[in-house]
């Protein structure tokens, strides 16, 4: 079965690389991945998959299915890009490798006793598409959810941090900055005080805590007391429970800015990205298959902590999310150099290795009676 899957994936590789390069050349942001979703679903449909578009009330989400075996294996595709730096997180490689794995596994679906699906998940970069899809029940019938993520090294179990984004809005009172500053309430000062408090908070943070953000508006003119300032911040921690503790401390820093200046504070909280629960057995199978392709784990890399809404999926179905080296070091994700590496020869090779490792992992899981029985239990 593995050889049959390999031959199918190898035959599809030129088209998969073409898809990856097209996505790279046409980056689309959260929930606006119209071209990407169209190209991916059209390709899957041409490969014999039954395609459902716009699932979970998300226009750019989809599910493509092949076969009707009792073990339901889903390969997840991400295809949104980042502002300014485009596909600097390599979602073009994620999509292409998941499609490749799906067509490879579909070739042996009857023999393996599986139902193969590709679930297209928009808006990973801050929009939390998978979170919405989990809440809408998209993953309720899935026995395992598999995907790879490109990076600067092969990492089996990267530390996925729980995360939450916050929109911060301070509202003050405008006034003439030269003639009557005392009549104003400076919303920009409120944000400066909050950022100062956050800087001082760092001395009490844990090594796995992360607090970072940007100012999105800070006033309109130098001679007007700023009446409105906005910022976008993210808080990360090792677990959802620790995230709750850290968020409370961070919010007090923003409250301090309002208290000191008299500005009004409004906070918009986005859905929480969960930490990752790795399935030990599936990870072991992936490692064995990746090593059979010449991959190796255990090397040093600084790229070990990040956040993804795949963590939310891992809370409802057995999941993996290994990092696949694309030969880009010292560049790391979210850098322009990384975006360029995703369409370089090593990035194209990662599509093949990712598709093979994922498809072979699914075949091994289907062939292991004990693991198969565990995965298909509905009482998890």
In terms of topology, how is this protein built?
Layout: H1 2-25, H2 34-46, E1 50-53, E2 62-66, E3 71-77, H3 91-107, H4 109-112, E4 114-120, H5 129-135, E5 144-146, E6 149-151, E7 159-160, E8 162-171, H6 187-201, E9 210-217, E10 228-237, H7 240-261, E11 264-269, H8 280-292, E12 305-306, H9 310-314, E13 323-325, H10 336-341, H11 345-367, H12 369-376
Parallel strand pairs: 3-4, 3-5, 6-13, 7-12
Antiparallel strand pairs: 1-2, 2-4, 8-10, 8-11, 9-10
Helix pairs in contact: 1-3, 1-11, 3-11, 6-7, 8-11
Tell me what you see in this structure:
This protein is an alpha/beta fold. The chain has helices at 2-25, 34-46, 91-107, 109-112, 129-135, 187-201, 240-261, 280-292, 310-314, 336-341, 345-367, 369-376; strands at residues 50-53, 62-66, 71-77, 114-120, 144-146, 149-151, 159-160, 162-171, 210-217, 228-237, 264-269, 305-306, 323-325. The strands form four sheets. It has a five-stranded mixed β-sheet. A hairpin with an 8-residue loop joins strand 1 (50-53) and strand 2 (62-66). The longest helix is centred in the first third of the chain and has 24 residues, at 2-25.
């Amino acid at each position: 079965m593995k050889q049959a899957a390999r031959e199918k994936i190898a035959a599809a590789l030129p088209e998969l690389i073409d898809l990856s390069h097209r996505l790279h050349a046409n980056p689309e942001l959260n929930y606006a991945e119209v071209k990407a979703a169209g190209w991916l679903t059209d390709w899957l449909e041409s490969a014999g998959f039954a395609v459902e578009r716009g699932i979970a009330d998300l226009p750019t989400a989809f599910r493509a299915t092949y076969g009707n075996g009792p073990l339901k294996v889903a390969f997840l595709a991400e295809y949104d890009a980042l502002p300014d730096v485009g596909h600097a997180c390599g979602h073009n490689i994620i999509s292409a490798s998941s499609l490749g794995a799906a067509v490879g596994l579909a070739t042996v679906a009857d023999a393996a006793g599986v139902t193969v699906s590709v679930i297209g998940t928009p808006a990973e970069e801050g929009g939390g598409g998978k979170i919405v899809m989990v809440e809408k029940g998209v993953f309720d019938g899935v026995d395992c959810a598999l995907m790879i993520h490109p990076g600067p090294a092969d990492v089996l179990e990267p530390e996925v941090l729980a995360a939450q984004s916050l929109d911060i809005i301070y509202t003050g009172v405008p006034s003439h900055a030269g003639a009557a500053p005392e009549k104003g309430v400076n919303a920009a000062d409120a944000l400066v005080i909050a950022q100062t408090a956050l800087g001082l908070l760092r001395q009490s943070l844990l090594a796995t805590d992360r607090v970072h953000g940007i100012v999105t508006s800070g006033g309109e003119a130098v001679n007007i007391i700023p009446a409105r300032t906005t910022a976008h911040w993210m808080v990360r921690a090792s677990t959802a429970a620790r995230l709750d503790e850290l968020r409370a401390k961070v919010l007090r820093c923003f409250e301090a800015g309002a208290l000191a200046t008299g500005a009004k504070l409004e906070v918009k909280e986005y859905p929480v990205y969960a930490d990752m629960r790795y399935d030990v057995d599936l990870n072991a199978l992936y490692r064995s298959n990746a090593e059979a392709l010449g991959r190796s784990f255990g090397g040093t890399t600084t790229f070990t902590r990040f956040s993804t809404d795949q963590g939310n999926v891992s809370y409802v179905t057995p999941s993996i999310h290994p990092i696949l080296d694309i030969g880009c070091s010292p560049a790391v994700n979210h850098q322009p150099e990384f975006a360029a590496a995703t369409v370089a020869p090593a990035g194209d090779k990662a599509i093949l290795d990712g598709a093979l490792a994922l498809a072979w992992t699914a075949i091994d899981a289907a062939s292991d009676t004990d693991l198969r029985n565990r995965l298909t239990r509905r009482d998890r």
